[in-house]
Amino acid sequence: MTTIEKTPRQAPTPERRPGELTFRELLRFGWRQLTSMRTALVLLLLLALAAVPGSVIPQEGVDALKTANWKDAHPSLTPIYERLDLFDVYGSVWFAAVYILLMVSLVGCIVPRLLVYARGLRAVPPAAPRNLTRLPDHETFTTADDPEAVLARARAVLAKRGYRLRPAAEGDPLDAVSAERGYLREAGNLLFHLAVLVVLVGFAIGGLLGFKGGVIIVQGGTFSNSANQYDDFVPGSLFRPDMLKPFDLTVDDFKIEWLTSGPRQGMARAFEAPLTYRSAPGAPAQQYDLRVNHPLTIDGTDVFLIGHGYAPVVTIRDGQGRVVYSGPTPFLPTNQSFLSFGVVKAPDAQPRGIGLEGLLYPTFASVNGEPFNVFGDDKNPVLSMRVYSGDLNMDGGAPQSVYVLDKSRTTMLEKADGKPYRLDLALGDTVALPNGLGSVSFDSIQPWVRVQISHTPGKLIALAGVVMALVGLIGSLFVRPRRVWVRARPAGPEDGSGTLVEVAALDRSGGGDVAPVLAGIVASVRGDAAPSKEE
What we know:
Layout: H1 23-34, H2 37-50, H3 52-56, H4 64-73, H5 78-83, H6 93-122, E1 137-143, H7 147-160, E2 164-165, E3 176-181, H8 184-209, E4 211-218, E5 222-224, E6 232-235, E7 248-251, E8 255-258, E9 268-278, E10 286-291, E11 296-298, E12 301-318, E13 323-328, E14 332-333, E15 340-346, E16 354-361, E17 364-367, E18 370-373, E19 382-390, E20 410-412, E21 422-426, E22 430-433, E23 438-455, H9 459-478, E24 482-490, E25 499-507, H10 515-526
Antiparallel strand pairs: 1-25, 2-3, 3-24, 4-6, 4-23, 5-7, 7-9, 8-9, 9-10, 11-12, 12-13, 12-23, 14-15, 15-16, 16-19, 17-18, 19-20, 19-21, 22-23, 24-25
């Protein structure tokens, strides 16, 4: 009896639907899409668009007071903007994601092209086509010279013009010369794209290891470069406070020239702040005139002059006659005429704390009974402020801006008719406050300057990238890749006696005018003119 063995049936392989990809194929497809030049251009555009909110919306790291005022003026939009990190665009997750994707896309796009270009550099020019007269730009002529002499002259002419010649190879026809030039065009294109990556790396290094901060310094005041001395300080992700350079500077004076006539009357024409600085503790003092666009550089840290204003010197005495506040208080300009806003706080005054909030008019004038500031020069300074008494809420330990007055536990002083009590002080005035609260004096006015201090370690790398981009762009625009072939053979009965020479040229970039180049090569090969360098 014969036993029949049954082969186990294999499970049928499930058929894939059209267009269905495996996980590995999906990863390969995603990588190819990410590293395509089209994706790199889209990401570059997205990065530019992502930077727009950072230029339009106040940024917390640039101007904290302006950001706070914007939030107070737009209470409905503030929660949405905070959720989208629009007040810190350049530190947001979505901006970093676009930045990193762009860098990955550029690397994945440039590296394969570099390999292709390296192979192209080693490749020899292609052999001459069988029929050169079919090319758009060609010329033929006859000469009495032997074909070998014509080809030797053609090699010399093309080599002097910077063409790379095809070496003799087995199977190549011996009656033609092949030459090619313009390899630097693709090198310029690659250099340009590589430069974009270098610029991004430079900015990334500056963003990670650098910092930027701002501080207001009253004339005669001194600033020491430590984190707690800044009004606002934005460090990089990898920056440590001990990386700050230990310098200090003093604003000795502030000079400003105002335009007093013409259509721009009242505007500042030029200003500068003479400084005394020390690059390190114990170092000799040095002088520098700080001006706009002329920063002071101290051991790789740049100090820029970016603004100025006024600091009225106010003295507050409480109900017991004690001086509870005295000194210059920086007021922030609100418009081009330097009408300035400020706050003065005396939380220790007795019997109750005193807070002042209002405006400084550098050149005060009254128009139909309404206060008006003429221009920015301090010709007639006047303080106009409202008075608040009570607990200023400065003992809770929470940080509080010097330009914000917490009124939640205070009472605004009012006149007998219920209107707000306003304190109007000209320079040198002293006014007694009602209800025995004390007195306020406007003693003098001093200028202040706002300086931005920044350290950007990657700026030279970014500058090198910009230079590389310009060089690469010039190369990709002005270098023309061309191929030239010269064939010389004995003339047939229909061409006459001697040697028939065919010369053809091909512009690989398109749009180039090859006719003048071809005419020059033909003239040189024919012997009508001396070989010249091709433009």
